[in-house]
Amino acid sequence: MCRMPRPPLDRRIVRELQKLTRRGETAAEIRRLCAGKAAQLGVPRPSYSTVLRVVRAERRRIVLEARRASPLDSLVRGRVPTPYELEQFFSARIEP
Question: Which of 29, 63, 82, 93 could covalently link to 25 via disulfide, CB atoms 3.0 to 4.6 Å apart?
């Protein structure tokens, strides 16, 4: 079987896929919703396997972000949270 190389995925489409993943949509629904955005941008819509790859990567990233230590973890360990920890904690809470 001859496999064709995948065309590069437009960054705007990747951001749209990530946004829809964070909203909790399924991969199939994300692909359907993304078709309009791809047409609007004049780029080919991504295949289901490409959407699934991005969705899975984003879901893994969401899980890892949730596991990240919070400033409270630092306090429980008996140390003062660093400014970086505080910034990351509050910026993660503000983003939609």
Answer: 29
End-to-end Cα distance, the chain: 43
Per-residue pLDDT tens digits for 27-58: 999 999 999 999 999 999 999 999 999 999 99
The answer to pTM > 0.85 is no
Say how far apart CA 45 and CA 37 lie, in whole Å: 8
d(CA 74, CA 82): 9
Could you state, in order of their start, the residue ranges of all structural domains in the chain?
A: 11-94
d(CA 44, CA 22): 23
- Residue 89 exposure: Cα atoms within 13 Å on the Cβ side: 12
